[in-house]
Amino acid sequence: MLDKLFFYLDFPFVRYAIIVGTLISLCSSLLGVTLVLKRYSYIGDGLSHVAFGALAIAAVLKVTNNMLIILPVTIVVAILLLCGGKDARIKGDAAIAMVSAGALAIGYLLMNIFSSSANIAGDVCTTLFGSMSILTLKPTDVYLCVTLSAIVLVTFVLFYHKIFAITFDENFARATGVNVNFFNLLIAIIIAAIIVLAMNLVGALLVSALVVFPALSAMRVFKSFFTVTVAAATISVICSLTGIIAAILAGTPVGSTIVAADIVAFLICFIASTLRNRRM
């Protein structure tokens, strides 16, 4: 098995997949802790459905670079959901559920009405559940992911204390002089960009797993915001690497294999937490 793994690692596209998968998992887990604590854990799923709808629109318009439509649309919706939550007539989870179902339905409808492919079911399944498209990445895709990951990491480190403050109490953060609206806007833009990139890794329906599972796993074992964030990032990276390598060796879908690894990690953390509580 090791010989087979080293054989595949000689190919650039495999190395690209591992780099991109690791970086996307790292970034999504960092923001995932904040989103889970702010009760927006379902937003990853909602935004991925929005990206699916935007992808269908780009296909109908025959746009060569579909990122020109997918990314702006997803960012705008993320801003509306994250920044307009308290003042909106339709609150939090209801707004996400409405946008999620609506975008998914519209995307599938457009792909059926204006499809230029003979295999609609295959195209939809590939987009929703992911495929081996992560193994067809170009160097430009890798550079884009590395750049975005660097921006996310630098932003998180520089504004760690402010992100911590708005995560737990926005009113207190505002009273201490933190520009809450700006940081909510920043989080919305970053999470939207990560969701769009992650669609190539795990598919639209499985994106939220990258956001939610590592954070929930870490919360079962650790208590402080810092340790949970570090543990979530570590768990996410390990699961991503394990999933990608297992998928390459076994020929299974990359996205589903990564999510399966996240589930195993959560079960391990759950069992460890249960045993620790019983000893106490």
From TrEMBL:
GO terms for biological process: response to zinc ion; transmembrane transport. The keyword Transmembrane helix applies. Gene3D superfamilies: ABC transporter involved in vitamin B12 uptake, BtuC. The chain crosses the membrane at residues 13-37, 42-61, 67-83, 95-114, 142-163, 183-213, 225-250, 256-275. Keywords: Membrane, Transmembrane, Transmembrane helix, Transport. The keyword Transmembrane helix applies. This is ABC-3 protein.
